[in-house]
Amino acid sequence: MEDTxxxxxxxxxxSPSENSPASHPASSSDASPRKPLLSGWLDAVVAVVILFVAxxxxxxxxxALGVLPPTEIxxxxxxxxxxxxxxxxxxxxxxxxxxxxxxxxxxLLWLYARLRRCRAGLEFGHRxxxxxxxxxxxxxxxxxxxxxxxxxSELLPGDQSALGSGGxxxxxxxxxxxLFEEVVFRxxxxxxxxxxxxxxxxxxxxxxxxxxxxxxxxxxLSATLMGLVLGYxxxxxxxxxxxxxxxxxxxxxxxxxRIVDMEDVTVRELMDGGTAYWVLYAVATAxxxxxxxxxxxxxxxxxxxxxxxxx
Length: 311
Prior knowledge:
By secondary structure, the chain is mostly helical. Helix content is 68%, strand content 0%.
């Protein structure tokens, strides 16, 4: 049986050839680890800024290529077919601009790494037979958090109609967004904070940043707590692959609810707000709070990674 605890909590060690005194006889300072690529808040902020800049330029390039969002005439029509066409055009614009943003963002992050003359140390691997079980646990935990936040989320403004609908929405929400956002937030942002301050700061800091960039008040709260779940999987098991797949699973569920016109229907409405709902709400809230506390405790023992790997 795999030993996931030791595997996750033990940072990779530099090879003796890199840090031994014999390899660097010139001075004792040469024997110390080189400063990692992402070594603090500044580097985390740079990664978020790159994401914003890439998205801005991606939108401009999309317009320059002739891929335009729907006109106001289409979006304000009373014809259902015209509105459906407008939603498809909007989703196409979002998907293509996001694809351009992702490619540009990855290029800028790679360039940043080259300028720092270090690797980012992104880890995509996954280990062990327990991976599907972990993904299922994470998915159910996100649902528990969603149910626990429902009463508060209903009080906050939120409109995601600008995402559009149809196949283009699936491409941007289920494929592009999980890949780009996880590399930025659970890779670069969390990586910078983890290497300087340890996993606990990385866990909280990357989740808050992830929530804030969503801008829509009702989404900011849920995205922040979802970021804690995604960050735990990325940091605990050293696997961006896990957080990417879990992110995609959550977005696919949201897209499905959008397709069947249940995106704004709450669990309380589905259950008529009766006793059964409040029992479910209490259980979901207890599971969410307990799990988040246990995640924080597990990551608090994972200290900073004082190593880097040269390009």
